[in-house]
Design goal:
Layout: E1 2-8, E2 13-19, E3 24-32, E4 40-45, E5 50-55, H1 61-74, E6 88-93, E7 104-105, H2 108-116, H3 125-138, E8 144-148, H4 151-156, H5 159-162, H6 168-172, H7 183-197, E9 205-211, E10 215-221, E11 224-228, H8 250-259, H9 263-272, H10 275-280, H11 286-294, H12 298-321, E12 327-331, H13 332-337, H14 339-347, E13 368-369, E14 378-381, H15 386-397
Parallel strand pairs: 1-6, 6-8, 9-12, 12-14
Antiparallel strand pairs: 1-2, 2-3, 3-4, 4-5, 7-8, 9-10, 10-11, 13-14
Helix pairs in contact: 1-3, 11-12, 12-14
Bound molecules: adenosine monophosphate.
């Protein structure tokens, strides 16, 4: 049974074809700079790693998806020759609002709700909905599933964690609350960590850190997420590549008054022009910042110091609210790949019993323990496999 996984980002589209009989990936595609300038898509077939490259200036998400299907059907090495060879499609949905505490099948009703939740994830939900509709058009009978970044948090967070200290109407009428993000990743990281430790996730309290270009930290108590750093939108919490993370909310009105800027300009400033990029002045890519800091660039050093501190504070705050912390897990681009940043973050947390072994910390990826044998709190790297999680959820529902 072959599942197509569709992951629409703000200007990217990542897809995979996964043969669920052996959980083997048959194809990976990556479209970037959607709407241009410089739109392109790479399609890689596995296991051969044969790659096709397309320049698609100005293409939309739906354009990329139809080009991808055309490429798959035309390829000799892929066992998928028509849409009938695909059993279902799993769509990553950034926000399901309060509507969804688990994955759901695509119907007119659920799709409408995804669109309504576009208010909460304007850079993502509309593109995901466009992909679902494009697929529905070419394959009206193909079962499609919605897998939500928010569902893990909606299912677990108690009211004291999800409410903001605003008057009641902002929650009851406007639905302003903490929804969280990266839920699929946090859930997978916690469950996989329990497996690596040889324990049941129900018996463990784990702090999961999704450290990628976007990032969030969650407290997972007995397999349920009881708190998380991201809020109404993916702007709150730890410092990110181009996003501010948490700051005094009064800064928003201060800047808007001072610069007389529009809502969109302010939104753009906080989401796209801030974070590591703003502090370093050169890049939002952690690799470049680490190189810069090692070469003596003080702004890069400051960006890393601020990043590390924001992650340390998030871990510390969740350590404080859980009855006991058994493990801390890092995942995603920075968490999995950066020995340097992992070392710096955990060097500041030894007093909380999180002692990373420098030898075990070496290298990239893997599902493994990197804490010292006598570390009271275990520290692990778990390789994020968001697409596989989406494919499994899709299988379960179809
Ligand atoms: P993601 O959003 O999960 O793809 O993560 C992207 C982030 O991971 C970017 O900031 C990259 O710079 C960072 N990253 C990827 N590989 C490395 C590496 N080898 N060392 C440090 N950071 C990395």
């Amino acid at each position: 049974m072959i599942i197509l996984v569709v992951n629409a980002g703000s200007s990217t589209l990542k897809c995979q074809l996964i043969d669920m009989d052996n959980e083997e990936c048959l194809m990976k595609s990556n479209a970037e700079r959607i709407y241009g300038p410089g739109t392109f898509m790479n399609v890689t077939f596995l296991p051969s790693k044969n790659k096709e490259h397309f320049e698609m200036e100005g293409a939309s998400h739906a354009d990329c998806l139809s080009k991808l299907l055309e490429t798959i059907f035309a390829s000799d090495e892929c066992p998928v020759n028509s849409i009938e060879d695909i059993a279902g499609a799993g769509n990553r949905i950034v926000s399901g609002g309060e509507y969804f505490d688990r994955s759901a099948l695509v119907t007119d009703d659920t799709l409408e709700k995804v669109k309504i939740c576009g208010e909460l994830a304007p850079l993502h939900n509309p593109h995901a909905a466009a992909c679902i509709e494009a697929l529905r058009e070419v394959a009206p009978n193909l079962p499609q599933v919605l897998v939500f970044d928010t569902a893990f948090h909606i299912a677990g967070l108690p009211e004291k964690a999800y409410r903001y200290a605003l008057p009641e109407k902002y929650y009851s009428e406007y639905k302003i609350r903490r929804y969280g993000a990266h839920g699929t990743s946090h859930k997978y990281a916690a469950e996989k960590a329990a497996e690596v430790l040889g324990k049941n996730v129900e018996d463990l309290n784990i702090i999961t850190c999704h450290l990628g270009s976007g990032g969030s930290v969650s407290a997972v108590e007995g397999g349920r997420c009881i708190d998380t750093t991201m809020g109404l939108t993916p702007l709150e919490g730890i410092l990110m590549g181009t996003r501010t993370g948490s700051m005094d909310p009064a800064i928003v009105t201060f800047i808007m008054r001072r610069d007389n800027c529009t809502l969109d300009e302010m939104d753009d400033l906080m989401n796209k022009k801030s974070g590591l990029l703003a502090i370093s002045g050169i890049s939002n890519d952690m690799r470049e910042l680490e190189e810069g800091a090692i070469a003596g660039n003080e702004k890069c050093r400051l960006a890393l110091d601020m990043y590390n501190r924001s992650v340390q504070k998030a871990i510390g705050s969740f350590y404080a609210i859980m009855p006991r912390t058994d493990a801390v897990v890092v995942t995603a681009g920075i968490g999995e790949n950066s020995e340097f940043t992992r070392r710096e973050i955990f060097e500041g947390l030894e007093h909380m019993g999180m002692i990373v072994d420098p030898e075990k910390n070496k290298g990239r990826g893997g599902d493994r323990v990197i804490s010292a044998d006598d570390s009271p709190v275990k520290v692990l790297i778990i390789s994020a496999d968001e697409e596989m999680c989406i494919a499994r959820e899709t299988m379960a529902l179809i």
